[in-house]
Every structure is written in structure tokens, then in C-alpha cells.
Amino acid sequence: MKRFLALLCCVCLSWGSVGTADAQRIAKYGADFLAGGVDARALGMGGAYVAHADEVSAGYWNPAGLSHLTHPELSYMHVERFAGAVSFDYAAGALPISDRSALGVSVFRSGVNDIVNTLNAWDPVRNQPRPNYESLITTFSAADWALFVSYSRTLNSDWSVGINFKGIRRTIGDFADAWGYSMDVGAQWRSERYRLGVTVQDLSTMLQSWSINESAFSIDDTNPATGDPFTFGEVFGQDLPTGGTALVLPVVRLGSGAVWPVGRHAVTLGVDTDIAFDGQQAFAPNVGDVSFHPRVGGAFSYAGVAELRAGISRIQTGDSIGLDITPSIGAGLTLNQVAIDVSFGDFAGLTAQDLGYSYRISARVRFEPPE
What we know:
There is one protein chain. With 371 residues, the protein is mostly beta strands. It has one domain (2-278). Helix content is 11%, strand content 52%. The protein has helices at 2-18, 40-44, 58-61, 133-136, 232-236, 349-355; strands spanning 25-26, 73-81, 86-96, 101-117, 122-123, 128-129, 138-154, 159-172, 176-190, 194-201, 206-212, 244-248, 251-262, 265-276, 286-287, 290-302, 306-318, 322-335, 338-345, 358-366. The chain has a 14-stranded antiparallel barrel. Strands 5-6 form a two-stranded antiparallel sheet. A hairpin with a 4-residue loop joins β2 (73-81) and β3. It is elongated, with a radius of gyration of 23 Å.
């Protein structure tokens, strides 16, 4: 409990330090490419997984859960989001390094590919597309990368703690890029049936530093009035974007859950709430700049082999949409050391109408010697 109170003190000190950084802007969605979650089992339960994470995906949900590993594990998930416009990939590995501690590494990529670049397809002299504009159109990708290095340790029979050291890399073709670094901390408490968890994402706040490559905005044509190459501003009437820094504030993820045995089977329930402090007010229940993002989910496991899941991953409110609830469902099959999980979400309400559905398939392998 002393360690847990010390963790809360660190959180308060971290938030207090943000107030002195007036020169930076607050990035409300600076790390949103990671907010969708990983692992089809967890997502099938609506993402109510902070207290339940006890395998390789705990490196994302709650690093404290990695200490429950008994053997090395690998996991992979691929998702096509927003009607295929955004691809998301996740791969992770973890292994116990003693009977009380474990290490993990997680890699994430979210990207939009084949974005059309028409900078040199426009004729600024004639003020219309060039005759051969098709051959002058190129494509580029906008991608977000993240790397988590996790460590977890069991304190006693009930408590475990963990930490993530993480870095992100964001690119928009050759036009702009950014780096960011921060850390997460987490704790879990477990009894025979009940579980509690807390994760503080970006405890130290994440400072994202953007830089602009001005040469990528150059125009391959000469201004006949000056004899110099056209500038971006002359052709499009806009100033070049500028670099800068942005702060991603901490998010507290609170989780609770229970597992009830039913003969050879089991029923799992999870209830989580994310608390954000960056002023997200669009459709999110909030009190001033503090917004709340609840999730709930459950699962029924048949003999530890097959499992059915369902949950609510998002609850939104607003005058224009009323109450909007995003459910999720999923199923999984575990055969010896291999687990295959699927989930399906965003099939109701605002998201489905505009941005399509999301299907997730993940696989996990546990390297356990056969009996």
C-alpha cells in the first residue's frame, strides 16, 4: 500500500509540472493511435481488461500483469480500421526472468497508405492541372510507430507492479515527423476471485516534438516574373506549416473485475473507466476538462477451450447524437499453447454510420514444454 500511495503522489507531481509548460500546447489526441486497444480477447470484452491482463498483452493494458507469466509468449494482431483506410499492426513478446518478474516488448504501427501528393500536378502559370498531371502524382504514407519496453514484478501474493518505457515516432511522408518519449506505470491486486487494476499512461507526460521538411513542399516550376522557383505560398496561397511541441497529458485507467468458476467453466466480468485530463469534451461525459470513458465486458469460458465475449467499448453523449453506445462481441479458441481470438465492434451508432466496422483477429503462442 505504501508503494501504491507513492505512485499516486508521483502522478500528482507530474500533473502539477504540466502547468509550468505554457509554451507547449496540449495535444488532446496526440496518442490516439494507441487508444483503440490490442488483443482480440480484450477487445471482445469491450476493453475492460486493466484488472484482467495477465499475459503478453498486459504490456499494453497494464504492465503489472506481465508478472503472472509462467512461460514466454508471442502475440500478433492486424486490424483494418475505418473501412480499410487505416491499417493497424501490433506484435509483442514477453518472458518471465524469475519466479517474480518478467520483461516484455511491444511494437505498434498505425498507418494510412497511398495518400495522393498532387503538389507538382498543378500548373501555377496556367492555373489548372498540367496536361500530363497523372504522371506527376505520387503517393506517400502517414504512419505512427510506438515501442514499449515493459518490466513487471510481484510484490506479494496479492500485489504486482509494472512499468513501461515507451517511445513514439510519427511521420507524414517526407513532409513532417515527430518523436515522443514517456512512461506508464501500473499495479494489480488479485484475490481468488476478484481483481483490481490501475494504469497511469504517460505518467511523466509525453512531449512530442514536430519538425517540418520545407524541401518536401518545393514546386518543380519557375515563376516567369522572378525567374525563381515557385514557392508553396505563391501557388496555393497558404503558409507552410510550422513545427512545434505538444504535450500528451496522463490518462488514468481504472479497472475492476471478477472470475467465477462454474464447474469446469468460468464467467469473467470487467468494469473499467479511463479518466483523461486534456479537455476532451466532444461526446465524452466530462466535468470541465476531466472526461470519463467507461467500458464494461464479460466472457464465458467453456472448459478453458472455447470462450464467448461481449462488452461495451464506448459510451458517447451529445445534443446531436443523444446517447450512443458502441458494443463489441468476440470469441476465442485455445488449443494447447495456441490461442486464436476474433472480435467485432463498431456495429452500431455514430462510428458505423460514417466509418465502417472493425474486425480484429489476434493470435497468441505460449512456449510451454509439452507434458
